[in-house]
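Example record for the data management plan.
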Amino acid sequence: MPIRFLIVEGYTPQGRDAYDAAGMSLGDALYARMLTRWLPGAEYAVWRPRDSVNPPAGPENYDAVLWTGSDLNAYHRDNPLVAAQVAFAARTFETGTPAFGSCWGLQVTATAAGGEVSPNPRGREIGVARRIQLTPEGREHPMLRGKPAVFDNFSSHLDEVTRVPAGAVVLAGNDFTRVQAMEISHAEGVFWGVQYHPEYDLHDMTRLIASRAQRLSKEGFFLDADDLERYIGQLEGLHREPDRKDLRWQLDIGEDLISAEIRQLEFRNWLKYMVLPRAAGACNV
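Corresponding structural encoding:
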């Protein structure tokens, strides 16, 4: 039997429109691409709370749940879109359904388990999260098995987990964001997640930056429109020709960002250690 996943795509209508205008794929498409890369033949449904706050089915009806990024804030609990997703994350723990997520996925799941998310006092971490380091626990954890002790990954967030929920273990962090990877054991379930975006590639990051061009320029990331376009052009150039030494050096882009095998290792390990054994066990009942 095919393994069935639910992808929770949490963007608001405004976030969707900004991405569409910039030619950026939304989170469900990026996660579907990553999922089918490493598990061809996997089946998946998508829940977009902006279209309906009621999920198509409970988490117990899927083999696993995937959480994408979002432009929501987990601490806005009075927002129906946030409340619906926090409740679904709590239900996922209660049913014991394995889950994985990035950025918003980590934040909404930490909130559901009793943690706290707040604005990062250092501001926005955008483009590349640099020098992410494994904690002692992370060096022994199966999610990060085979990962370099220090690595970079794609990133875009303003918020961070500021109170780790009971039953959680921080697996990686950097100077900008203390919680970059975490396991959360809560109720009957286990979540593995990251603050960064392994589902992105260089092209996806250019489209994300383009979708937030005015905001990023206002915040001082670019001097002017020409500066922004120059940077985007370099990223796109490296995406087309990943072996260009000049662009790798100028942009400080290593194999940990270029190679999907390295960049998405956390997700691959989650499939290997959390999803496939459980699915095999269900088939043998």
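Summary line stored alongside the record: The CA atoms of residues 6 and 88 lie 11 Å apart.
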